[in-house]
Amino acid sequence: MERTTGRRPSGAQDKTFLMSSTHLSLHYHLVFRTKNDEPVITSAWRDRLHAYLGGVIRTLGGAPEAIGGVADHVHLLVGLRATHTLADVLRELKSVSSKWVHEEVGVCSFSWQEGYGAFTVSALQLENVRCYIQQEDEHHRTHTFREEYLALLQRSGVEFDERYV
Known about the structure:
Order of helices and strands: EHEEHEHHH
Structural class: alpha+beta
Low-confidence stretches: none
CATH architecture: 2-Layer Sandwich
CATH class: Alpha Beta
């Protein structure tokens, strides 16, 4: 293939342009709950858990942009690379953070539910999602997790069966 500058001399034929590098904007809003919806994430260690989750994302090569949550679930806004597999990132994040809670917090029965929600976020919506996550305590004064999660699914156009949410 011939490299071109983007300008063609008058009368020149179309040339195929080469992309010289890869450019990505891959942001995800991740949501997952504690096993059996147990409200075990207490305010005494919640901030430490959120910081730890951010550290795990960084260790995996991602960028934590916002992390929040309440006693029974967490929300993360993360930037990932094209080489990341979303399922692998979530599996590792949940596995190592459960182990951290067992060892550092001493809640040996702690675990996350198997499933999760993952929603793509456009660059134009990053600040809105960041603010949303930072206001989790406020949301849950008036809305249940189920109401919140169903609204996320609906806004994102995700098909679902309410029996399994």
